[in-house]
Amino acid sequence: xxxxxxxxxxxxxxxMIRRAILKGLAIPGYQVPFASREMPMxxxxxxxxxxxxxxxxxxxxxxxxxxxxxxxxxxxxxxxSFFERTAGVxxxxxxxEASVIQTRHRIPEEPLTEDQILVxxxxxxxxxxxxxxxxxxxRKMHSLEEYGxxxxxxxEDISRHGHIATSYAYPVKVEGRYVMDPSPIPKFDxxxxxxxxxxxxxxxxxxxxxxALPPYTQVVSLDFEDHPFEASKADHLCGLCDATxxxxxxxxxxxxxxxxxxCSDTDYCEARRAAGHKGKDAA
Amino acid sequence: xxxxxxxSKTFTLHNQGSAVIEVISDxxxxxxxxxxxxxxxxxxxxxxxxxxxxxxNYLTQSGSICIGDLDIxxxxxxxxxxxxxxxxxxxxQFLRVVPRVPTLDVVADPLRALGVPADDAQARAKDLLAQxxxxxxxxxxxxxxxxxxEQQRVNIARGFAHAYPAMLLDEPxxxxxxxxxxxVLSLIEGAKTRGAAIIGIFHDEAARARVCDREIDVSVFTxxxxxxSEAVGQPRESAA
Amino acid sequence: xxxxxxxxxxxxxYGAHIGCADVSFDLYPGEVMGIVGESGSGxxxxxxxxxxxxxxxxxxxxxxxxxxxxxxTVTMSEPERRMLGRTDWAFVHQHARDGLRMxxxxxxxxxxxxxxxxxxxxxxIRGKATxxxxxVEIDAxxxxxxxxxxxxxMQQRLQxxxxxxxxxxLVFMDEPTGGxxxxxxxxxxxxxxxxxxxxxxxAIIVTHDLAVVRLLADRLMVMKSGRVxxxxxxxxxxxxxxxxxxxxxxxxxxxx
Lengths: 283, 240, 256
Hints:
Distance between the termini of chain A: 42 Å
Oligomer: heterotrimer
Distance between the termini of chain B: 32 Å
Structural class of chain A: alpha/beta
Number of strands of chain A: 12
Low-confidence stretches of chain B: 225-240
Shape of chain A: globular
Mean pLDDT of chain A: 94
Strand content of chain B: 15-25%
Order of helices and strands of chain A: HEHEHEEEHHEEHEEEEEH
């Protein structure tokens, strides 16, 4: 495929994005504006993540894409084949083999290493927008560290539901400074954000923002003293691999109320089954 | 306690051809602690005007009006506010209150402003309202709906809630029946006994004779009334 | 005694048009000052310059800060001024919806300033919010309701609670009773009077309603065409106005 530059984007664009990424890494949690390009896919399909991936990929990389933890959904398959065709890089579904992992809505169960980059697709990068729609005002709040509003959101949760009901895109504070939206990952994954060995990059295409967490960054989930943060998951075992420690998807089996819980991280589940673990619903 | 020196007042009516009306000129007198002085003179002579000048309600053009150590002609607004809160009481002919505030709170208000605890202030208010024969069932209602005589008694209770060292009383016994008139006069006598310097306007001559130690005829200080109109010198009090 | 707020020579132009010109005054602790004048007289411009919402072209707004004593708030850093804005200062807007978050419950509205200054105990925040709702005569059972379900008077009282919860020392009010029914106004005025007295608040109230200043303000400034034409004790200015414009203003009030 010689009609496209390596990884689709022209080199000038990649340099511009890399500068934004470096700035983001230098100021963990700070949203860096960048000139998002039109990509050959609709907004909401990961245009931000794709541009960040394109900017960091090298010909030697091995690329993995997950969507809600799975390697085999339409979105994941499309983006994987996009880079197979435009960059010619190796792809994989194995977390441990990948050097760049683009993700939507999950962090892999397998702990990542210093040799890996995790690229998140972000729909709405601004955690304060829910309560303060003015971008001029939210930028000022970030710059002046005025984050009381973030707790108002959590307060509202507790007053309405009796507990913090926010279960994904749960706001975090980075290195005691910037409040950040971790993208719509389940709050179960929040603890993994902190002190991670891999580089974490966040790309929001439509919103034209990039932000980043360098390795081993302290990331704290916001909470109240009397309503502390809890990384919750369904209180079940994986029906296929019997895992107790993974985030589970609930799958409706029939219209009689039959259902099963399975790992949302398909690679993790498959690896466990290959190693001999067997859940109660496994065939 | 109250000392006026060469006090003069004019009204300039900018919107009526800038007419300048002299209402008071060169008043000088003083009132000692424990003394009650009655202001007399025909209607329109400027009794109420003079009293309002002493209260700081009307601006005095020249001279000095000292209440204790403070010359209210020169004083800053905040000094006059403090003076009114602590030293100088005024019972006007009209009760002006925030609608819907219960009578008991209206009367206790001057004490609350001085930092007296709510319970003590209310106890004093209840005592005064009882003395002035305001039925207890009215205490929790706003005085705005009361009859003229009742409003006047609430006004007096409010004016006597705090033991001001100086007091101005504008027709305190008007529209009162004999019983309540007697209560008011004894309140005034009580204030004199504790050493208050009092200036009063009483159309009720018997009352004046009973409580006033001296009388001052204000007409003496009133310059020749212009074009035969008495009323023009008394701007209508704004009901705003 | 140090003035709580000392305003010196505040001037604001909108192009060639004068917003307000050379306004100076001192406000002492516990004092309530009214600013009256017709629409366009510059009273709102002045209020917004003092409260830090507008940058004056000239002049100083010196506030006696708790930590460092008198400081010019016009030239202080923005974070510092905004911190004042959510601790020692309060601003009550004419329209409650400008001062409230309409999508957030009453408790969240009142609690926001507490959370903004670092309170992180849900139970405590909710307790204080409930307490403040009761102080402004809103049923504590409404703590989880949104202001959209409140009447105009309740919304305004909620706005006041939201502002006073951090115990400010200076409250700016822009037509606080405007747009309310007369009966609701009276209740609000009484509430404000009580709060001002009990909390020892200083306040600056902009209004065109002379009845409001008579009941709430110790002192009064009359503005016309951006300038202060008369200032003094409220009852003195209203009962014995000296300036032609003040006389016109007072005599123009309809009698009931």
